[in-house]
Amino acid sequence: MPGVNQKIIICGGDRREIELYRCWKETGLTVKAAGFERIPGMENAAEEDFKDAAILIAPLSGIKADGCVRAVFAAEDLNLIACLKSSTPEVILLAGSVAAPLKEELVQKTRLVITGDDEELALLNAIPTAEGAIQKAMELSMVTLHGSNALIFGLGRCGRALSRTLQGLGARVTAVVRRRESAAMAYSIGLASSDLATAAEAAAEADFIFNTVPAPLLTATLLKQVKGETVILDLASPPGGTDFAAATELGLKAVLLPGLPGRVAPRTSGQILERVYRRLIKEACRSKNL
After folding, report:
1. What is the pTM of this model?
2. Can you point out the beta strands (E) in the chain?
3. At residue 140, does pLDDT exceed 80?
C-alpha cells in the first residue's frame, strides 16, 4: 500500500490492535506500538519515532477530551496529544472518534481520518459484536435463547446483525424503533417492532434485552417493568443507554459491554482493521498525492 516504507505507530487499543500489529509486521511494514508495554515482542515507539512517523493509529474507542486513548496493555495512561507534540502536520491520524474540544486542534495538527464514520468498518464490526453479545447472554442467563423473548433497542448495523443471529437461534425478536422506516425494516426481516411509547410493555415480556443505542432509553421507569431474571446487555458506546444505578437498585442483571470485537474475536477483528485501514490509508495518501 502507499506508505509501505513509512513508519506506522499503533497507539493504544486492545487485542485486535495486537493482531493488526502482527499482521503488518509479517507483511514487511515498518510498524511500532505505543501503549503495549505489557505485550512481549511488540516494538515500543520512542519519542523520536513520532517525529518521523507517517501514520498513527488510535483505537476505535476514540480520543477522549483529556487526550488519552484506551490502552489495555499500557503501563500507564497513553496521552496521544502529548505524543503528537513530536509529529509533523503531515502525519495521517486514524481515530474512531475525537472528543469535541480536541477535534479542531487535531484537524490543524494532523490529517485526521475518523474511522468510526466508515460504513464498511461498522458493518464488519457488527458481526463479532453480535456474536460476543450472544456469548455473554448465554453465560449470564439460566434459560436458552431458543424460545426466549429478545428485545433489541435500535435496528442499526449492530441491531440488524444481532437480530439475524438471535432469529437463527430460535429466539422471538422484537425491535424497539423510532422511525416508520425502521419499523418497516423490522417487518421485512421477520421481526416484531415496538415504538418508544410501548417499549416498557415490551420490556416486561423480555427474557433478554440488548441495547445498541447511545442514548438513555433504558430509564429507571422502564427498568421497573423488567422481570428480575431478565438479562440486560448494553452494547452502546460508554456510558451506554441503561440507567445502571437503577438496575442495581432493582436487583437486575445489567452489564455494559464496550469493545466486544477485541475481547471475543481479536483475530477476526484485527483482520477487519487491517482490511479497512489499508483502504483508508491509501485514500488519505492519494488525497495528498503521496
Report:
1. 0.88
2. 7-11, 30-34, 53-57, 68-69, 78-79, 92-95, 111-114, 149-153, 172-176, 192-194, 208-211, 231-234, 253-256
3. yes
Q: Is 116 helix (H, G, I), strand (E, B) or coil?
A: helix
Grid cell for residue 156? 442499526
Query: Largest alpha-carbon pair distance within the chain?
Result: 59
Q: What is the DSSP letter of 198?
A: G
Which bin fits 250, alpha (ψ -120 to 50), beta or left (φ > 0)?
A: alpha
Residue 264 has pLDDT above 60, yes or no: yes
Helix, strand, coil shares of the chain, percent, nearest 5, are 45, 20, 35
pLDDT in tens, 145-182: 999 999 999 999 999 999 999 999 999 999 999 999 99
Where do we find the cell 503528537?
Answer: 84
Count Cβ atoms below 10 Å from residue 136 Cβ, excluding itself: 19
